[in-house]
Amino acid sequence: MTENIEVFCQNSIRIESEAGRIYVDPFQMKEAPKDAAFVLITHDHYDHFSPEDIRKVAKSGSVLVVPEKMASKA
């Protein structure tokens, strides 16, 4: 099961799932794969909510999931 999980740095994680690739708090991404089915953001600290890195992983149709209090930022 853990072979489907990749940790990039700090709390930045990619999970391969049947639903597609899931990124959690993408941060300091070296590449721009633009292959996320889902991007999950845990909170609004700069190292968890990085719009630049979200753009690197998101593709057309990606679902961005953020806490309700962050809706206006997202």
Protein described:
Helices cover 9% and strands 39% of the residues. It has 74 residues and is mainly beta. The chain has one domain. It has a 5-stranded mixed sheet with strand order 1-2-3-4-5. The model has no long low-confidence stretch (mean pLDDT 94).
Based on secondary structure, the structural category is mainly beta
**Overall shape:** globular
User: What percentage of the residues does DSSP assign to strands (E)?
Assistant: 35-45%
Number of separate helices: 1
Separation, N- and C-terminal Cα atoms: 31 Å
Biggest beta-sheet profile? 5 strands, mixed
Uncertain runs are none
Q: How much is the average pLDDT?
A: 94
- Number of distinct beta strands: 5
Helix/strand layout:
Layout: E1 5-9, E2 12-17, E3 20-24, E4 36-40, H1 51-57, E5 58-65
Parallel strand pairs: 3-4, 4-5
Antiparallel strand pairs: 1-2, 2-3
Brief overview:
This protein has 74 residues and is mostly beta strands. It is 9% helix and 39% strand.
Q: What attributes does this structure have?
A:
single chain, 74 residues, mainly beta, 5-stranded mixed beta sheet, 9% helix
